[in-house]
Amino acid sequence: MIKLLKDSSTIEKLPEERFQMIINHDTTMTGQVINGLISLVHTEPRALISTGDIWHCRLGHPSNQAIKILGLPPSSSTNRGGEFENKNFAELAASCGFVHLFAPTSTPEHNGFAERANCTILNKARCLLLTSKLPRSYWAGAVNTALFLSNLMPTPSRDNLSPFWAWSSKPSRIKSLKTFGCKAFILVHKNRREWKDKAVIITRHALSVEDSFPSLAANPEIHDCSRWVDINKENNEAFFDCEYIEPEHINDTSDVCHLDSSPSVEQAPKISENPNPCHPKNHCRRKAISGSKSSFWLEAIRRELNAMQKLEFGDVIPLEKDFKLAGTTWVFRQKRNELNEVIEYKARLFAQGFSQKFGQDYLKTFAPTGCLHSLRTLIAFSAAHNLDFQQLDIRSAFLNAPLDEKVYLSIPQGLQMCRKTHCLRLKKPIYGLKQAPIAWYKRLTSWLEGLGFNASISDPCVFFRKTHPPIWLFFHVYDITVFGSDLFSFKEDIKKEFEVKDLGKADQMLGIKLIHSDNSVILSQAHYAESVLALYGRSECKPMMTPMVPNTHLEESNPKECSRFEALNTNYRSAVGSLNYLSVPTRPDISFAVSFLSQFLKKPGIHHWNAFLHVLRYLRGTVDYSLHYMAHGVGGLCAYSDADWGNCRQTRRSITGFVISFKDFLVIWKTHKQPSVSLSTAEAEYKALTDLSTEVLWLR
């Protein structure tokens, strides 16, 4: 009774025949013991709010022994809606044994449990409508779907059992679930369609296309045949030219799965292998000149042959028996802008360098290429000091370099000469030769040094000239970017030496789009991110807030998991590589996730593939994230490092991560697994600091 009344001055007496409760020395309630049950009656009639029978129901008919450990009766708090504040509900509450309480007006927080559940359902319904792009008229369907999905989801308070499982003692059936709002094809009964109509899918189930959301305003009536679209060969060529995929058989008993079982397998999208007839990249010359774009490709071939002849790339000589000939092939490519529009058709004559032998027709092959760290630093430096930077493209760059070795080629297609009696002795390295890159690098750097440029000690593809005004130069093979306040004289000098295409202000470099505005430059790869999402069928997927699920720990897959993943017929290495070209140039936010996924290229499994798809969902919501360099930055170099001690559960090696900013703008970032095991957190931190220090010294 002390718990019931919560009054420290309550005195309880439990005689055999009568019960008396005394508060502050006054008798307030008396009760008679009948068959072990106590009926309490207040001494004041006006204080009686319920009968003894109702209180016995509320208290569960306690005995003398149970009354000592009695708690408060169950209660229910609701708002003052008409569905609750009425006689019928009051009688129901009394008969069920709970106290019905009313919350004050406009205080839904007092009904926390019910209001929280309502908020969850409504938020899910809004997300369903937003993702599917359906109008508000589908609100009822979205709410019903949210309720249905909530009943199938595991609940921590019930040992991760779903409400459906707890109610029916059966596991939830989730394999038959489809994306809300997606396009679906339904079989129209033969009695309700014309005999010429196409039956798109012959199955008793609807085939859902979960990557397409038509967002129709209303569903057509099944009995009104005039409102159905006539699907036939004549007006739907694109549809019938697509590869037909047989719908999987759906079994009513086999589609039951346990929510706590192994992770689900997300099928990789099928990628069409049909070549584009307008882009004969992998076709021979004959197909290129006979296709619909033959005039463009013939002009590209003519332009390439003229450039080779102008630069005197080789001599035609009689073929001798001891000559070792390398073959040739034509490679065709379409150059596109950021809008995926074709801006140039290119044809290149390539030597089949795989037939070369070391020591006979080539020696050194390595040629350095520009580092992205250097490029970002130069762009940030130029933005901070309002410097101009422009792009130059050297045409047929490799043909400008001399060739030291004797290399013989068979007569390429397109030259009117007998291939059986003559061959080509090269004087210039054409594309495809193993030594062509290093020959061009030596040619370009020697010319730059003749103009007074000095190579950077840190990056052999960065040159500078300490004139007034100074000039910095960055090149990646034959793409050159020049930084400075006055670039006219340099551009005139390089045009005298090489055939150069002046691209003007740099707007696209190495797949990175540069957006110029007043005193700022933006580096973006949104177009590339969208192409990756489209490649893996995630252009309309649900966005995620983080690149990875917190505290994710992946391990190498066992043979069983590897076989399950191999059934997807997906190239995991290529998929992670596509993300790597996002994380390295412009996306430091996914750097750790990509580095982590790259550790499992040898034995990937379903867990690793699902983690990769999680990164894609994060990209879906952050596709426009970019680097922004502005002129009003302050300070110089600023660097931070961190280490996660023993992060890898298999090797117990730690993870290093560091970032370096210039003028408050990020220019360098890196995350990787440390090469050795650290014995303490301090050792791991010092290793991370060492890596950071070497990078800062390189940058300075």
TrEMBL record:
<dbReference type="GO" id="GO:0005634">
    <property type="term" value="C:nucleus"/>
</dbReference>
<dbReference type="Pfam" id="PF07727">
    <property type="entry name" value="RVT_2"/>
</dbReference>
<dbReference type="InterPro" id="IPR043502">
    <property type="entry name" value="DNA/RNA_pol_sf"/>
</dbReference>
<dbReference type="GO" id="GO:0003723">
    <property type="term" value="F:RNA binding"/>
</dbReference>
<feature type="domain" description="Integrase catalytic">
    <location>
        <begin position="65"/>
        <end position="171"/>
    </location>
</feature>
<dbReference type="InterPro" id="IPR001584">
    <property type="entry name" value="Integrase_cat-core"/>
</dbReference>
<keyword id="KW-0694">RNA-binding</keyword>
<dbReference type="InterPro" id="IPR013103">
    <property type="entry name" value="RVT_2"/>
</dbReference>
<dbReference type="GO" id="GO:0015074">
    <property type="term" value="P:DNA integration"/>
</dbReference>
<dbReference type="InterPro" id="IPR012337">
    <property type="entry name" value="RNaseH-like_sf"/>
</dbReference>
<dbReference type="InterPro" id="IPR036397">
    <property type="entry name" value="RNaseH_sf"/>
</dbReference>
<protein>
    <recommendedName>
        <fullName>Integrase catalytic domain-containing protein</fullName>
    </recommendedName>
</protein>
